[in-house]
Specification:
Layout: H1 2-24, H2 31-71
Length: 76
């Protein structure tokens, strides 16, 4: 009977330790870290696209259309 009680105590202590380790562990990727990385990538991409759009819209495209019109202006 004493050995049965000792075995039960050992098993319960082992279960408690295993449960405590499982609950206090911080394994895993971390969803918040991934969400922050994705958000940063989207914001940086949007800023880059806005910069390129502003550059092409105000600097490159007007001179390009002017050059094309001058290239096909046969009468003048």
């Amino acid at each position: 009977m004493k050995s049965l009680i000792c075995k039960l105590k050992n098993k319960s202590a082992t279960a408690v330790v295993r449960t405590r380790n499982t609950l206090s562990g911080n394994r895993g990727e971390g969803y918040i870290d991934t969400a922050i990385k994705i958000l940063l990538a989207v914001v940086i991409g949007a800023l880059l696209l806005a910069g390129l759009y502003a550059l092409f819209g105000e600097t490159v495209l007007p001179t390009l259309t002017q050059r094309i019109k001058e290239m096909f202006n046969y009468g003048g």
